[in-house]
Design brief:
This protein is an alpha+beta fold. Helices cover about 40% and strands about 25% of the residues. It has a seven-stranded mixed beta sheet with strand order 1-2-3-4-5-7-6. The protein is globular.
Length: about 200
């Protein structure tokens, strides 16, 4: 098994894993074309996209940012043409989704706390500890960047999510706060300090 920075050749495998693991999530409803362009934007800083390979096959990924400050606006700039192309399709198939995407992007610069952020982590079903390997690799890349001193943040659901919540606690994350996202969905924000 090995982790590495993703390349554009990995994007369809990343999207297939995303769609398999996050079937009922908002981003999945936007379709494969959008997701390919979404994850393509993570290939450039401040985005960070890792894949985990097992026997030469991509079996998981972790996507996040070096810095949350106006991150979604920076992500948009990383792949403006791709997002425009995918957005044109969404405009006709699901116009309300564009409004929600715009709202999410505008919120990203309003956070009071600066942090790096793990936005998505997913693996194929396994009993080999893929999630732990990916999370550790994501943290190591951030910690090894000479300019990096921010805490790492991630969010996850509060309800019916005990196993995931415990996984992050066992990995050294602490609950920073609880908040409500779209449609009053209760979420935890976890924080892990990288410097002591």
């Amino acid at each position: 098994m090995n982790t590495r920075l993703a390349t554009s050749k990995d994007l369809y495998q990343v999207v297939d894993i995303h769609l398999n693991r996050f079937q009922s999530f908002f981003l999945s409803s936007l379709g494969k074309t959008f997701l390919v362009e979404f994850y393509r934007a993570f290939l450039k800083k401040p985005g960070l996209l890792l894949v985990l390979e097992d026997e030469g096959k991509v079996v998981g990924f972790a996507a996040g940012s070096y810095d949350n400050t106006s991150f979604f606006k920076k992500l948009l700039k990383n792949n403006l043409f791709g997002f425009a192309k995918a957005g044109f399709v969404i405009l006709f198939s699901n116009p309300l989704a564009l409004k929600r995407l715009s709202s999410n992007a505008s919120k990203s610069h309003k956070e009071m706390l600066s942090f790096a952020e793990l936005l998505s982590i997913a693996t194929i079903s396994n009993k080999k500890g893929y999630g732990k390997i990916l999370l550790s690799a994501f943290e190591e890349i951030l910690k090894n960047d000479e300019n990096f001193e921010l805490p790492i943040s991630l969010t996850t659901d509060v309800l019916n999510n005990e196993k995931v919540v415990q996984f992050y606690k066992d990995s050294g994350y602490q609950i920073h706060n609880e908040f409500e996202s779209y449609n009053s969905r209760k979420m935890y924000r976890f924080i892990k300090k990288t410097k002591i």
